[in-house]
Write a structure and sequence with these properties.
single chain, 63 residues, 1 helix
């Protein structure tokens, strides 16, 4: 399943990973998990795209 990277929301706030969890509430921790899951989906979509491009390039140069 390919996920269009433009379909995934990108946080307007630039936050660094990993964050210090000590002072975060349960709701903030859950939001943090949700943000990380979205980031994982975005990265996985980019990997799929790059693998497809690599496969295409390899097939061109094999000929």
């Amino acid at each position: 399943m390919t996920i269009d990277e433009y379909e995934l929301p990108i946080s307007k706030k630039t936050k660094e990973f990993p964050r210090i969890l000590d002072n975060m509430s349960i709701d903030e921790l859950q939001d943090y998990i949700d943000e990380m899951k979205l980031e994982i989906k975005r990265v996985e979509a980019d990997i799929e795209k790059k693998q497809a491009q690599k496969s295409l390039a390899e097939s061109v140069f094999k000929s």
